[in-house]
Each structure stands twice: as structure tokens, then as C-alpha cells.
Amino acid sequence: MFVAHIIWIIVALIIHFFALMRLFPLFISIPFLFLSFFSFFTYLNNRHRFRGFH
Description:
membrane, mainly alpha, 74% helix, elongated, transferase
């Protein structure tokens, strides 16, 4: 799952780079980049959370 998030961030950065060169719409690339970072940091935050005794 960690590798999938890293790949998603790299793809979002490439798309955002194309948007900065005006080859792709910027209003699509910015939320895509934000969601990729948000999902990655959410994943990192919830990995080692104590879920109680079962």
C-alpha cells in the first residue's frame, strides 16, 4: 500500500508539472495533488494506532 501511495504522488506531481506548463488544466491537477498527499499522510497516521484489546 505504501508503494501505491508513492506512485500516486509521483503521478500527481507529473500531472501538476504538466499543468504548470499549461498542457493540462490546473484546476484539475491541484485537487488531485492535494488528495494524493492527504491520503498518503492519512495512511501514515493510521498505521500504528492502538485499537484496543480484543
